[in-house]
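Long-time lurker, first post. I've been practising inverse folding by hand and with some scripts of my own, and I keep getting stuck on stretches where the structure tokens seem ambiguous. Below is the full token string for one chain I'm working on. Before anyone asks, I'm not after the true native sequence, just a reasonable design that respects the backbone. If someone could post their per-position residues I'd love to compare against what I wrote down in my notebook.
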């Protein structure tokens, strides 16, 4: 009797030990599976986000002061605030269009239900910071320095540049078009006469072309634009770029601008296919007034 009881106790202890060992194996397997899942998810989504401290434009202004802020951003802090008030709504709209997240899930039909945008680890970049990033980059700032200054990623710098470009393009107040008003044309000619030693009184603007340098376009970009790579190459300067035609007044302010041709095109060809040329042919210019240009516009 005693022998049978001892045997039963040993069997029960053995079963408990095996059950405990099995539970440990299951837990270890579950932990390994979770670890593997995190690794695969991190590989699929990219590297883990780096912690950054955001800084505002106001903080940068307090560090630089009015003089160096104007040098860095090519405008005063007051002008920056006015510019931001104009483009802020368009920056928000362009930002929403730039990252086209596809709505899915939810219980409200095609609207996506309770869909929310993915969280931003270090917080949303403000519209003023995005504008400052773009302006400083256009002024020659390094994206690596901008990363440190504003606490943003390298990708966010270039995202901000293209978002601001799209936003400014959509603000109608920033359209640059030669004035059709005869009074405005007289004012332009009067200012040229005051600066002219020969006292030309019929110059309603000065036109010239410039090559806007670019990287060599890829084959995919050329297919999209339906233009061959060679059309972007300027043989005289041995650089790829776009032919920019611009008209300015006596103070160097742009009155009209057109970029429709690659760097291989001549100034004459680019001008004759611009919107300004068609408007001039339709007679918007006051009688006796002309736009001055060099011999590159002689056909």
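-- Answer (accepted) --
I ran through it position by position. Result:
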């Amino acid at each position: 009797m005693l022998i049978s009881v001892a045997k039963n106790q040993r069997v029960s202890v053995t079963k408990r030990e095996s059950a405990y060992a099995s539970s440990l194996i299951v837990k270890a397997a579950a932990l390994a599976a979770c670890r593997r899942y995190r690794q695969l998810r991190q590989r699929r989504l990219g590297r883990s986000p780096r912690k950054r401290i955001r800084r505002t434009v106001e903080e940068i202004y307090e560090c630089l002061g009015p003089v160096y802020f104007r040098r860095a951003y090519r405008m005063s802090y007051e002008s920056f605030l006015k510019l931001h008030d104009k483009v802020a709504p368009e920056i928000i709209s362009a930002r929403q269009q730039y990252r086209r997240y596809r709505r899915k899930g939810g219980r409200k039909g095609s609207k996506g239900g309770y869909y929310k945008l993915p969280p931003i680890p270090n917080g949303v970049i403000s519209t003023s910071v995005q504008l400052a990033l773009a302006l400083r980059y256009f002024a020659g700032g390094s994206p690596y320095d901008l990363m440190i200054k504003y606490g943003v990623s390298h990708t966010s710098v270039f995202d901000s540049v293209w978002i601001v470009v799209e936003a400014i393009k959509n603000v109608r107040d920033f359209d640059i078009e030669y004035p059709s008003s005869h009074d405005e044309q007289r004012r332009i000619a009067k200012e040229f006469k005051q600066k002219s030693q020969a006292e030309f009184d019929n110059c309603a603007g000065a036109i010239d072309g410039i090559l806007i340098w670019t990287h060599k376009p890829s084959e995919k970009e050329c297919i999209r634009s339906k233009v061959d790579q060679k059309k972007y190459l300027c043989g005289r300067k041995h650089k790829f770029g776009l032919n920019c035609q611009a008209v300015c007044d006596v103070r160097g302010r742009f009155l009209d601008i057109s970029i429709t041709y690659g760097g291989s095109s001549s100034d004459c060809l680019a001008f004759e296919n611009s919107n300004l040329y068609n408007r001039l042919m339709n007679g918007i210019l006051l009688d006796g007034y002309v736009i001055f240009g060099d011999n590159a516009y002689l056909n």
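A couple of notes from the structure itself: The mean pLDDT is 85. The chain has two domains: 57-173, 182-297. Happy to go over any region you disagree with.
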